[in-house]
Amino acid sequence: xxxxxxxxxxxxxxxxxxxxxxxxxxxxxxxxxxxxxxxxxxxxxxxxxxxxxxxxxxxxxxxxxxxxxxxxxxxxxxxxxxxxxxxxxxxxx
Amino acid sequence: xxxxxxxxxxxxxxxxxxxxxxxxxxxxxxxxxxxxxxxxxxxxxxxxxxxxxxxxxxxxxxxxxxxxxxxxxxxxxxxxxxxxxxxxxxxxxxxxxxxxxxxxxxxxxxxxxxxxxxxxxxxxxxxxxxxxxxxxxxxxxxxxxxxxxxxxxxxxxxxxxxxxxxxxxxxxxxxxxxxxxxxxxxxxxxxxxxxxxxxxxxxxxxxxxxxxxxxxxxxxxxxxxxxxxxxxxxxxxxxxxxxxxxxx
Lengths: 93, 248
Known about the structure:
The structure holds 2 protein chains of 2 kinds. By secondary structure, chain A is α+β, with helices and mostly antiparallel strands. Chain A has one domain (2-92): Gyrase A, domain 2 (2-Layer Sandwich), CATH 3.30.1360.10. Chain A is 40% helix and 30% strand. A 4-stranded antiparallel beta sheet of chain A has the order 1-2-4-3. Chain B is of the alpha+beta class. Chain B has 2 domains: 2-39 and 146-236, RNA polymerase, RBP11-like subunit (Gyrase A, domain 2, 2-Layer Sandwich), CATH 3.30.1360.10; 43-136, Beta Complex (RNA Polymerase Alpha Subunit, Chain A, domain 2). Chain B has helices at residues 26-39, 59-67, 194-197, 224-247; strands at residues 6-12, 16-22, 42-53, 83-91, 94-97, 102-103, 116-120, 125-135, 150-162, 177-180, 183-186, 201-217. In chain B, the strands form 3 sheets. A 6-stranded mixed beta sheet of chain B has the order 1-2-12-9-10-11, with helices on one face. Classes of the chains: A alpha+beta, B alpha+beta.
């Protein structure tokens, strides 16, 4: 997983996450939208045939006093919590 | 923990299962589904060295067929790219089956031994050595561990009244799992026809939000439990990796 920051402001972040696809990006986007302080989160990905940018670019916008990078970290933590919780529930069944 | 999930099995066998997950978002459910199909690695024959092939098929065709034979894949024992050597030697008149494949590592062997590879007539012979490699479904479909993986909403059937006296008698087909008084009922139990279960009643069907019925079937490479666990693990691993990368 290689990261490349494309644009960074206090409350805005555009970052390329190389090697990932919809499987992880959509889960991450979904988790970010549930995270406190996140105003908007989306990712953009082009099909291989289009040429050019094919790795997903994640864009996050946050509320005024929230740093976008911190929000991304909180979002990933949320995915971790979700998967641990689901695993526990599956094991219990 | 931020989320509280609830998992309940409708059917559960080694290679096939149906279970309901409650409290899961569509995005996460789809992530799990996609991970099961494309991200959980399995062994498959990738390179074949043909010693003798006097059968009626080209080496390439035989190789493709060998590649499609599901091989057991122990979880956590191997890494992506690891190879295991297999061999096959069958002389006609006989049919070469996946069960004739001899493995150099007992952990990796054909999941079923009754997959036909080719029928050999008199004086025909197939002898080959093959390297099975561990890779993901997104590289080639032969590496897919989950072969029929999907989900649909859990549904609730609401009786809203009686049918009109001369209403048309039409079947109301519904497939999936419905929840009735807290009990999970597979629609096959009433022949997928709601009029069998609620005769003479007017019914409405509603999706239950964030409750999904997963149907998972594996090709025998591993059990359903191992597949689900590995899929969740793969999302967990990527989230952990990204988190660590962001912290730097």
